[in-house]
Amino acid sequence: MADATAASDALVLFGITGDLARRKLFPALYRLVEHGSEIPIVGFASSDWNTDHLRRRARESLEADGIEVEGNVWSRLASLLTYVRGDYRDAATLDPLCATLRGRERPLFYLAIPPALFEVVVENLAAVGLNRNARVVVEKPFGRDLGSSERLGRVIAAAFPEERTFRIDHYLGKEAVQDIMVFRFANAIFEPIWNRRYVSSVQVTMAEEFGVESRGRFYDGVGALRDVVQNHVLQILLLLAMEPPSSSGPEAVRDEKLKVLQAMRSLDPLATVRGQYRGYSEEPGVAVGSDTETYVAARFEIDSWRWAGVPFFVRAGKALPVNATEAVIRFHHPPRLLFAGKDAPMPQRNALYFRIGRSDGVTLQVQAKKPGAEMVSRPVDLDVDFHEVLGAAQEPYERLLGDAMAGRQTLFARADSVNESWRVIQPVLDRPQPVHVYDRGGWGPEASFYMLAEYGGWHDPRDAA
Ligand code: BG6
């Protein structure tokens, strides 16, 4: 039986000629080699490339990423790279890969390929015995609804046991996302107020300024709900809502996330708003008359003792005014008392802001006395910028690739949670609301503005907290 904790001794990247490898994986590999990794890296794809070509592409990708390539690190990385050409759909073309991997006992296969190829590649790896003692990393999307997710899960499970399967969600590799758990469970002062008695609402915004760019063909078959809500946004929500895990072990943490999902009501399609930015249907690769959403807003409800009655609002969209991901916890208003009988406004609610990917950090908004004769309060921010205080964050792909090679699963999605998250959003996939067209650079369809009317509205991440 394979040792689940032994480090991988070869890394095979399926789809090495693709966009993900160029943008994210080569920079991550460079950092891993810089920090001492010495395992051979095999790039596999169908293009007519050779190892020199692969090295050139790797070098270009590092330079495009702005990395100051250091000669010594580069020559080590270049010497670890090998290219193998093959057809993803044909198990016979895996022979050269088997030959390249001879003597390696615990390879890690990273599937940076179109989702339609996941199943056939996994089956082919098993057909030639390459799954033995191996790990597999699968990129999202894991299926496109509950049924396909369950089917993909079965195909993977037939070849790779769960402890050797790594479903990557790069948001879990972001330091500011991991900080949510640290913030909650390394600070004893927040736990007593982290529940329905004190929290009035929670909101998560994932806003992107750009449109679908060159990914129109992929995106048009997916849409915002599948692309980022089912995975990145829900993962943030789970970290905000989960109970304290009994340890930092992978199963303890992932069990708690699963419990939140199990307590979540399936979405009500009528409580969601779908939008599409003006001009989307003219983007290259997008079908004429497409009703794919580039914006979605939804209200999640968690029926647990901690959260019953607290709405969790989420919105995600492209062509919005800013690139920003943030989570906002709004607490209840204080009783009026001290401020009663005055014309002065009631003190605002306290709020806590987690910023992710845009000046990463946390802000706690409290009330302070406004200078002057009157007893009036105004909000002030207790604010920390992680970069300034803690230094540069580690890149998510470096962290996650390193964890997968070491067999550490905490930051990877487990099959049961993936299926459960599809169960939650499935009604919206079955009965999608019509898409509202919105202007580029605005905050999406007007219908979404009213969703939080009773809860103080959406927070604009560009405003001071
Ligand atoms: C990807 C989505 O998973 O995440 C993209 O497919 C999205 O559509 C991207 O732009 C956002 O990631 P980040 O790290 O840039 O916020």
Task: Provide an overview of this structure.
The strands form two sheets. A nine-stranded mixed sheet has the order 14-13-12-11-7-10-9-8-15. A six-stranded parallel sheet has the order 3-2-1-4-5-6. The model has no long low-confidence stretch (mean pLDDT 95). It is α/β, with parallel strands linked by helices. Helix 1 (19-34) packs across helix 12, helix 5 runs parallel beside helix 6 and helix 9 (223-241) crosses helix 13. The protein is 32% helix and 20% strand. It has helices spanning 19-34, 51-64, 71-80, 95-100, 118-127, 146-159, 175-185, 216-220, 223-241, 250-263, 386-390, 396-406, 415-430; strands spanning 10-14, 41-45, 81-85, 107-111, 135-139, 165-168, 199-207, 273-277, 295-300, 312-317, 324-331, 351-356, 361-369, 377-385, 435-438. The radius of gyration is 24 Å and the shape is globular. Bound molecules: 6-O-phosphono-beta-D-glucopyranose. 6-O-phosphono-beta-D-glucopyranose binds next to helix 9.
Largest sheet: 9 strands, mixed
- Which percent range fits the helix content? 25-40%
Helix and strand pattern: EHEHHEHEHEHEHEHHHEEEEEEEHHHE
How many E-type strands?
15
State the end-to-end CA separation.
Answer: 52 Å
Strand percentage, roughly?
15-25%
> What would you call the shape?
globular
Strand order of the largest sheet: 14-13-12-11-7-10-9-8-15
**Assembly type:** single chain
List low-confidence stretches.
Answer: none
The radius of gyration computed from the alpha-carbon positions, rounded to a whole number of angstroms, is 24 Å
- What ligand molecules are bound, each kind once? 6-O-phosphono-beta-D-glucopyranose
**What average pLDDT do the residues reach?**
95
What would you call the structural class? alpha/beta
| Count of helical stretches | 13
